[in-house]
Amino acid sequence: MPNRKLIFFDIDGTLYNSDKQVPESAKNAVRQLKEDGHIVAIATGRGPFMYDTLREELGIETYISYNGQYIVFEGEVIYENPIANSTLEKLSAQAHSNDHPVAFCDEKDLRVSTKEHEHVKAGIGSLKLDFEVSEDKTYFEGNDIYQSLLFCSREEEAEYISSYEDVYFLRWHEFCIDVIPRGGSKAEGIKTLLDKMNIDIKDVYAFGDGPNDVEMLELIENSVAMGNGVPEAKAVSRYVTGHVDENGLYDGLKQAGLL
C-alpha cells in the first residue's frame, strides 16, 4: 500500500484525556486509521502492563514503553535497555537517606519502596492505574529495571541530577521524576522500530504533549502537539491541535491529512 503511514501516539494527555479515558472520537479515529491500512503504534513513558487494556481495545501490537527502553514490534520484544544494577543500588541508598521513595519498573510490574508516602500517593495516584501498587525496596536486585521513579520536589532534585552519568532525570509530576538510561528516548525508540520495519521516516507521524515527547516531535516532520501540551512540544511540532478533552486528537489527525 503506497500511502501506508505509521502513526505514533503518546498516551497521557494525547490518547488519554484528563480523566485517563480515551474519547470516543479518538477511538473512532484509530479504528478508521487501521481500516485505511495505516499502522497505529504507541510511544509512552508508561510500562506495558499499565496499558494492556488500552492496547487490546485499540488493537495495537507495536509500542515503545519507558521512553524507548522497551520496544515491541507486532507482539515481539525487539529492544531492551535496563538501568545498570549498580546505578539503582546507589540511587536507592541515596533516596533512602533523604526519605525520598523510589519505584522500580520492569516489563510486568511496578514496585515502590514506600507506598504510603504522600508524594507516592500523589504521583502514582495521578496515573489512575487499575491495579494496587506493591511495596518492595529491593525489587531491582532480581529484575531488569527499564525505568525508575524518584519521588521528590523540584527543589530537592539537584543533588541527584549531578550524581549520575548513565541516567538522566525527566520531571512529569510535581513530586515525581522519571529516571531513564542516558541516550534513551522515544525518538531513539522510533529509530529502532523504523530500522526493523523498513519504513521511511517521511511516512511517520507522531502525536504528543509532554516534555518526554519533545525529541520525538522534533525528529518526526509530521508531528502534532496537543493543545494541552507544554510549550516546548508545541514549539518543535509541525501542527498544534486542540485540547485532548475537546477532541484534539481527532482534529489533529484531520489537520495532518490522515482523516
UniProtKB/TrEMBL annotation:
Naming one, the record's GO cellular component terms include:
cytosol
Record's InterPro entries? Cof (IPR000150), HAD-like_sf (IPR036412), HAD-SF_hydro_IIB (IPR006379), HAD_sf (IPR023214)
- Provide the GO MF annotations for this entry: isomerase activity; magnesium ion binding; phosphatase activity
> Per UniProt, what is one Pfam family of this protein?
Hydrolase_3
Keywords, comma-separated and alphabetical: Isomerase
Record's NCBIfam families? Cof-subfamily, HAD-SF-IIB
**Family annotation (PROSITE patterns):** COF_1
- Protein name, as recorded: Putative bifunctional phosphatase/peptidyl-prolyl cis-trans isomerase
Per the record's keyword annotation, is S-adenosyl-L-methionine included, yes or no? Answer: no
Q: Which domain of life is it from?
A: Bacteria
